[in-house]
Amino acid sequence: MRYAFADYAQTPAGYKDEKRDCVVRALRVAAGISYEEAHATLKSEGRFDRGTTFPSAMARAAVRHGFVAVLPDFVRPTLAHFVRTHPTGSYIVRLKKHAIAVRDGIVHDWKDHKRCGPRTQVRGAWGRAA
Question: Which residue stretches of the chain are H helix?
């Protein structure tokens, strides 16, 4: 699996106190929008500043940006399997206590790989064509 770390690891000015914003960053990368737009979308769907994002709010925000659920509720593949079976397109991927983006087979994360190794279980995913 290939990983990418980029400038989205830095928190933008005005959001320096923001914590637990992995869903904001995942939406930003997968949808190709600004941090501010992703933050506003999730806030309108029920996310509180400096707080965690519930899966239902994550799903609603993904749908607002043109994503569709790509996994049935009862299917939980490993991250490596998900990346192999979804080699193109943009995806918001929910893991246990974390969220990442996958774009064209590359895992985009801003933390260490402890929460998104190849054997990590995917809890949900929303995607759209490239």
Answer: 22-31, 35-44, 55-64, 79-85
